[in-house]
Amino acid sequence: GHWNARNPGVVQTFEEMKKWSEFFHEGYLAPSAPGNLFAQGKIAFLPTVRLLMSMYENDPNMTFDWGSFYLPALADGETAPRLGNSGAGQGSQYLFIPQTTVDAGKLEMARDLLQYVTSPAAIDFWCSKQPVPCFAPGTPLEEIMPGDTAKQAHYRGFIDPPTIDNMVSRLDANDVFGPAIVVQETQILQDYLAGNADLEQTLDSYQAFLEQQADNVILQHPEWGAESW
């Protein structure tokens, strides 16, 4: 389809971020304060990712009870649905064989290595070293971490609600145009949240940004034959 800044979903994203920005801590549009404000007890919650969990679990300042949740529901009595694979108890790793290995006559050896590191026994070994054991989507949290109520509270937001039959296929601006554009994209959002631009100006800026990036990537790929689209 056509990626347009005035698509209702894009417009609502900007509008909702503007509403939420009233509740952002003061450091959102300014340099962050030193240290972990959550660990210091100065903020009630903060966004995080699973890769950072060991930082919180090993922080000596985290002497209080704490836990995680996926997303707040938009209405009382509802549960925010999880999209994507973050609660599926799985990860992925891109593996490739470089052409230099093929040219050196070691293709079969490289294939053997890939078969070895992706074998069931190797995956079981990898799973045994993870802070969260490997599990099938939908497995109750109490079965994944039996007998450890503190750890269950810490990781609940990454596991419950589960990811079952709700996978999504999507691309964002970083996937399409590369991570180098994130500064320019973020500046548009920050100007809107800070009141330096209204919604119409922001959507115009974002549309121009998208078109500029599309023109750039087309120039980089003449083999696409974009002039015939």
Please characterize this protein's 3D structure.
- The chain has 10 helices and no strands.
- The longest helix has 22 residues, at 199-220.
- Helix 9 runs antiparallel to helix 10.
- It has 229 residues and is mainly α.
- The chain is flat, with a radius of gyration of 23 Å.
- 42% of the residues lie in helices and 0% in strands.
- The protein has 4 domains: 1-32 and 171-221, no CATH class; 38-65, no CATH class; 67-88 and 135-170, no CATH class; 90-131, no CATH class.
Structure described in brief:
The chain is mostly helical and 229 residues long. 42% of the residues lie in helices and 0% in strands.
Judging from the principal axes of the Cα atoms, what is the shape?
A: flat
Order of helices and strands: HHHHHHHHHH
Describe the main β-sheet briefly. Answer: none
Q: What's the tally of helices?
A: 10
Indicate the proportion of strand residues: under 5%
Overall residue-averaged pLDDT value:
83
In terms of per-residue confidence, which ranges show pLDDT below 50 for 5 or more consecutive residues? none
The termini sit apart by: 13 Å
How many separate domains? 4
Helix content: 40-55%
Structural class: mainly alpha
Question: What's the β-strand tally?
Answer: 0
> Measured on Cα atoms, how large is the radius of gyration?
23 Å
